[in-house]
Write a structure and sequence with these properties.
alpha/beta; five-stranded mixed beta sheet; 5 strands; globular
Length: 489
C-alpha cells in the first residue's frame, strides 16, 4: 500500500509539472505577435512613467480610470527588466496565468482531493479563455491568480490556527483589492461562508479584514470616487437579457465561444458539471460529509453571490456586466468540472479529459492563434498601417498613446490636447478612436471624439485651413476619421 501511494504521489507530481510546462508553451506561443489592444495602450502609457508617477496618474484620474495600482506597478517592473515591446508588456500576464495552474491544483486539493485538483488544473491549462487573457496586458490574469491563492489560504486559515496562513491570507486579499475592485465582491463571498459554515471563526475573519481595511486606507478615496461617480464604466451597454449574458459567460469558460463550434460540446460540459454538483465519487468516501458540504457550499456561494450582486448593480445602479469582470467564475466552475470528472472512474476520466484536451486544442486554441487577436479584438497596428498606406505624410490624432506604433510605421502623432502645439503643415489628419455599439456612452466617457465640429474649429484656427471629412472607417473596436486639409476661401 505504501508503494502504491508513493507511485501515485510521484505520478501526480510529474503530471502537474507536465501541465505547467504545456500551459507555459500555450501561453508563450505568439505572445508578442498580436497588435496591442486599445486598452493595452493605456498600460503602455502607464509603464512609461516612474513608479511614483503611476500612483500620481491613477490618483489624478479618480473616477475616470479608477483601477488600483498593483498591476501597473508589476507591469512597470516587467518593462524595466524586459524592455518596451508587446512581448515584455504581456509577459506578467503570461507568468501569472501559468502560475494559476499550480494554484488551481492546490485549491482543488484543499477543497476535495489531489485528483480533483489535478483535473481542475487540466481545465486551466487548456482553457482558451485563460490562454487569451494570458496574452493580454491588463490586470485580469494577475487578479485571477491572486484570487485562487487567496481562497487557498482562506481555507487553510479556517482549518489551522497558523500565523503564516493568516499572513498569506491577509497579503493575498490586500493584493487582490489593490489589483481590481472586484476583490471586494469575493470578500463578501468569504464573509457569508464564514457566517454559515464557521461562525466561531468570524472573529478571526474580522481581524483579517480590519488589517486589510487599514492597509487599504491610502487608496480609499479613489475607491470612494470610483464607486460614487463610476464614469470609468460608461462604455458598457445595459444588459437586456441576463440569462443570455450568463449563457455567453458559460460559452467563454468552456471555450465554445472561441474558434469552431463542436456539436453538443456544451452539453458534455453540462453533464460533467451536473455530476460535480449532484454526485459524490467513492474515492471521496474518506472525506467527511461535513467537509464535502462545506466545500460545495463555498463553490456555490462563489458562483451565485457575485452573479446576484452584479445583476442588482447592473439593474438598479449602473451597467457592470461584461465577461472580463466575472471571469473569476472559472475557478469554482473548473473545480466543479474536475469533481464531476473524478466521479467517472479512472479510465473514463482519462478518456473524457483526452476528448476535452483534443477539442480545446484543435477547435478553440489553434483557431484563436490563427485570428491573432487579443480578447478585445482591436487591431491597432493594422489600422495605423492602413493610414500609412493611404497617406504617408498625415498627422494622427488620438487621446490614446499611439506613438508606440506611429513611430514604427513612420507617422506623426499628437494627442488631442497637444494639437495647439503642432507647427508642421499637413494635407490630411486622422482622428483614431475606440468604437463599439455603445458610441453614446463611449462619448460620455471620452473614448471617442464626441464633438467633431468643435475639434475641427480648433484645428482650423491652428492650421489656418478648413477640414473636410472624407472617410469614417471602422473595424471591431477601433476606427478613424479621415480629414482633408483644404485652403480657406
Amino acid at each position: 500500500m505504501s508503494l502504491m501511494k508513493t507511485t501515485r504521489k510521484i505520478g501526480t507530481k510529474y503530471a502537474l509539472w507536465g501541465l505547467v510546462f504545456i500551459g507555459t508553451g500555450l501561453r508563450f506561443f505568439h505572445l508578442g505577435s498580436q497588435s496591442l489592444n486599445w486598452d493595452e495602450l493605456d498600460t503602455i502609457m502607464m509603464t512609461g512613467k516612474s513608479y511614483v508617477g503611476i500612483i500620481q496618474e491613477l490618483f489624478g484620474r479618480l473616477s475616470r480610470w479608477g483601477h488600483p495600482p498593483l498591476y501597473y506597478l508589476v507591469a512597470k517592473a516587467g518593462t524595466v527588466l524586459g524592455g518596451t515591446s508587446e512581448f515584455a508588456l504581456r509577459f506578467p500576464s503570461m507568468l501569472f496565468s501559468t502560475l494559476s495552474i499550480l494554484a488551481m491544483y492546490f485549491l482543488g486539493k484543499e477543497l476535495f482531493n489531489k485528483k480533483v485538483g489535478l483535473f481542475s488544473a487540466v481545465f486551466v491549462t487548456f482553457s482558451v479563455h485563460l490562454v487569451s487573457y494570458a496574452q493580454y496586458a491588463k490586470p485580469y490574469a494577475l487578479f485571477w491568480f491572486l484570487v485562487t491563492f487567496q481562497f487557498l489560504f482562506f481555507l487553510r486559515s479556517l482549518k489551522f490556527t497558523s500565523r503564516l496562513n493568516f499572513v498569506f491570507y491577509v497579503l493575498s486579499t490586500l493584493f487582490c483589492v489593490y489589483t481590481l475592485y472586484t476583490g471586494f465582491v469575493l470578500i463578501l463571498v468569504q464573509a457569508i461562508y464564514v457566517m454559515i459554515a464557521c461562525p466561531r471563526r468570524f472573529k478571526w475573519f474580522g481581524w483579517a479584514m480590519g488589517i486589510v481595511a487599514l492597509l487599504y486606507l491610502p487608496w480609499g478615496f479613489v475607491l470612494y470616487k470610483t464607486a460614487t461617480l463610476h464614469e470609468a464604466i460608461l462604455w458598457m451597454p445595459k444588459t437586456d437579457n441576463y440569462f443570455l449574458f450568463f449563457v455567453m459567460v458559460f460559452q467563454y469558460l468552456t471555450g465554445v465561444f472561441f474558434g469552431n463550434n463542436v456539436p453538443f460540446e456544451w452539453a458534455g460540459f453540462l453533464v460533467v458539471l451536473c455530476l460535480g454538483v449532484f454526485y459524490t465519487p467513492k474515492e471521496m468516501g474518506q472525506i467527511s460529509v461535513e467537509r464535502m458540504n462545506k466545500s460545495d457550499l463555498l463553490l456555490y456561494l462563489w458562483i451565485f453571490v457575485p452573479i446576484i450582486l452584479y445583476i442588482l448593480v447592473d439593474a438598479f445602479i449602473t451597467p457592470v456586466l461584461t465577461v472580463r469582470y466575472v471571469g473569476f467564475l472559472y475557478i469554482p466552475f473548473y473545480i466543479l468540472l474536475g469533481k464531476g470528472i473524478s466521479c467517472c472512474g479512472n479510465k473514463a476520466s482519462i478518456i473524457i479529459l483526452c476528448v476535452f484536451v483534443g477539442i480545446s486544442l484543435t477547435q478553440h486554441i489553434f483557431p484563436y492563434y490563427e485570428r491573432n487577436l487579443t480578447p478585445g479584438g482591436h487591431d491597432t497596428r493594422g489600422v495605423l498601417i492602413k493610414i500609412k498606406s493611404e497617406a504617408p505624410l498625415a498627422l494622427v490624432v488620438s487621446k490614446m498613446p499611439l506613438s508606440f506604433y506611429t513611430q514604427k510605421v513612420g507617422l506623426d502623432f499628437v494627442k488631442m490636447r497637444q494639437l495647439p502645439e503642432v507647427k508642421k503643415k499637413y494635407d490630411k489628419i486622422f482622428i483614431v478612436y475606440q468604437c463599439c455599439d455603445n458610441l453614446d456612452s463611449l462619448s460620455k466617457a471620452g473614448e471617442v471624439p464626441p464633438d467633431v465640429p468643435g475639434f475641427l474649429k480648433r484645428a482650423s484656427k491652428i492650421f489656418g485651413k478648413n477640414f473636410k471629412l472624407t472617410k469614417d472607417y471602422k473595424e471591431p473596436g477601433i476606427g478613424f476619421l479621415e480629414f482633408d486639409v483644404v485652403s480657406v476661401h
